[in-house]
């Protein structure tokens, strides 16, 4: 490889060409090569209209050819495989969180003897780290760590989760270790929120780059599969051992495996855009964060984003959740064992997997407005299933409490979780390039903030009605209030867009 001197970069007779005399001028060319690199424009001995262009002057036998299509295709397939393994296993672990949480809920209800209101308060307060998801999303979009801005955040979040659940396995046996338990739960959800933000942004960014809309459906399928296995296995183990410590430790081991996987894969192999070196030098971290925050506010200010977002938040805030009271009623009043509760979660996750597949096949053909209305009506109707259980109507129909809880208890919770999917697809297809992490995390943050507020409203409703471990007589009235409140968002259904995001994209292309 030697260099050639070209006048004004135009094609013509170069000073040095490949011929037998080249070897005689090899030292002179090396000198020109050195001077072209070391000399600045001020002290360059050559005229200004001369420049050095370094190119290969090689023969056919040693000419470097571009990467063949076959090799490029192999790299793309390899990157797609790594993406499937990374996100597939990552979302599966998200669903598998039900495994330690099932044990933790039974530990708080029986080992720590929490009343229903306190249990629900702890469950909702543990989700407070998820509210700060937009901050994690802005950092993920703006701040690169080692030329990558998704996988490092996944690794950090997984490490925090493994640390929290590993520590929780050591202190869970102490029935009075509530402050330590709460600290570990908050640390775990902090790590989970960081991981989810990075994974959601990675999925949105990869889907936009490769023109693969709707990848969120497959992510939810993986999460549902993890939830099915988690609840099925968790209920069985908890019934046999009655000790949550081993379940916490097992989940920490799975998180360690995810950490190794995220560290082994390189982000550049996924084909994601790289940061500009110039921008990295000239821009400070604070300036990058400010710019990303401004872009996020501009994106949210668009009508096609804030109107669906307002309806989504209102549909959750309107319903005061009584999950803690219902869980205490099932475990303390009806004395249902953990395997029955776990089986109810399994049924719910199977239903989530089924409706996700159905949505991926035919649900995308429905208008967003019609789909949102159907989901809200189904959610309101599913709340009445708890009314049937509390009033023991199922026994009059010849259905035992165990069978009814196993088949119908988790439906309302699953429909509420599924509601996030259509909006994730909508926002993922509408998000501007470079704002994938911040906008998707803002949606998730709005979901968790409204869910936490709804849980707190449920705590207030339970206290107002006087629902206690010894008196569940007012629980049916609370469920009826839930049902009526769930129908209120239907009056604001016009906030949702008429068309699906895929339809809007096709129109833009035309």
Give the key terms:
globular; Growth Hormone, Chain: A; disordered N terminus; about 500 residues; about 70% helix; disordered C terminus; 2 domains; mainly alpha
How are the secondary structure elements laid out?
Blueprint: E1 4-7, H1 26-38, E2 50-53, H2 69-95, H3 98-111, H4 116-125, H5 133-142, H6 151-171, H7 178-209, H8 215-241, H9 245-264, H10 277-282, H11 285-300, H12 303-317, H13 323-333, H14 338-361, H15 368-390, H16 393-396, H17 401-408, H18 411-418, H19 420-430, H20 436-465, H21 475-487, H22 501-509
Antiparallel strand pairs: 1-2
Describe this structure in a few short sentences:
This protein is mostly helical and 510 residues long.
Structure report:
The chain has 510 residues and is mostly helical. It folds into two domains: 50 residues, no CATH class; 430 residues, Growth Hormone, Chain: A (Up-down Bundle). The protein is built from 22 helices and two strands. It is globular and about 65 Å long. The N terminus and C terminus are likely disordered.
